[in-house]
Specification:
This protein is an alpha/beta fold. Helices cover 38% and strands 17% of the residues. 49% of the residues are buried.
Length: 485
Amino acid sequence: MEAIVGSACSTSALLFGSKELVSKGIHYNGLVRPFETKQTGYIRAKSVWKSRQVRAMASQIPAAPKREKDPKKRIVITGMGVVSVFGNDVDSFYNRLLEGGSGVSLIDRFDASSFPVRFAGQIRNFSSEGYIDGKNDRRLDDCLRYCLVAGKKALEDANLGTEVLESMDRSRIGVIVGTGMGGQTTFSNGLESLILKGYKKVTPFFVPYTITNMGSALIAIDTGLMGPNYSISTACATANYCFYAAANHIRRGDADIMVVGGAEAPVIPIGVAGFIACRALSQRNGEPQKASRPWDTDRDGFVIGEGSGVLIMESLESAMKRGANIIAEYLGGAVTCDAHHMTDPRKDGLGVSSCITKSLEDAGVSPEEVNYINAHATSTLAGDLAEVNAIKNVFKNTSEIKMNGTKSIIGHGLGAAGGLEAIATIKAITTGWLHPTINQDNLESEVTIDTVPNVKKQHEVHVGISNSFGFGGHNSVVVFAPFKP
């Protein structure tokens, strides 16, 4: 014990510099570094050993988090656009989330009576009026319609309408709106035409409206945005990957403004049937509104949903220069891979916990600063607990953290989920209210974090993170906070 204490004390002296050591050494990056000596033998060996020990000890001391201060690299949110089961208005969307009424219902878009799953977070009465002309609206796949409306609404919200954009350098504005599955209706209809009527009956729009990059492309075509433009497809992690990529474009100086998010329209026969085949969906047909129940012991799978969520991400310098309304700040993010299984998460949550840790490092945030998590929380047996285990590995004290699951109310929007949940996270920051996680009747004993069960709660969010994970082991985490000049 004495040897240990003695070693610790001598190391401490080296680290913090006693008068004796300062007189015998020089300061180097805040540490005391011994002078070089030509002596050999024990004295030199001891000096080298101490020097190595100092470096080893220093490497184990975590650096204090440093948030970005350069206004060219600080990224703020200046606009939001949504298409959801609760409509196309951001405030109405969040107010409905706060109310805690489920948006899940029986499918009526097609005859699902023979399916073992007959419900979804299906969008009804969708209108693109004022955003897509009638001719194109009739042709476009729903995935593209949702993307265009959410994207243009986000631009409007950021005061980047057509007239304003025409006066700006549009080569400095890019678009990254991803989708996990693309134009599934177009693909399904095209395949049916090929089989029943022959190749001549396949629409010339089959390829353009099926491929996943077309949402970003159409936003750019309609608005003249010539900056970085592509899509990312990482299943249910898609939108967060887009946020992370867009932020890096701004930080590198490739663009000043990015239109970013996700879109999905999978509530069609093949979309629902595919997830039934994966055995991923809840089969609670008698109580569809109670089917999505994250962390509840009676959960039996997720509920398929749809929609689009888009943010305008902008450098602080750009936002201040044009007098934009700053809603919140994007602090950072990260992406990792489980490298484990196509559909199942790692039980130890290693890929997720490392992603959370890396996102906080990128954001310049310590774990103690985070007090809100919008969880991936799909309502699957393995996924819910794997995420909780990962969270508890990173946040040793969760007593101040509140965590909720947006999917409990609107279902799982797949590639759009991260976009919808980023908006929910930002609205939690700006309103001071967290929406509930509904259908919390019998919480898993391992879940020791406040899940905001069934009723909304007031909560001042200091730093919030939003998690999204996808088939293939794709993990993504983004970090948001109130904007402080």
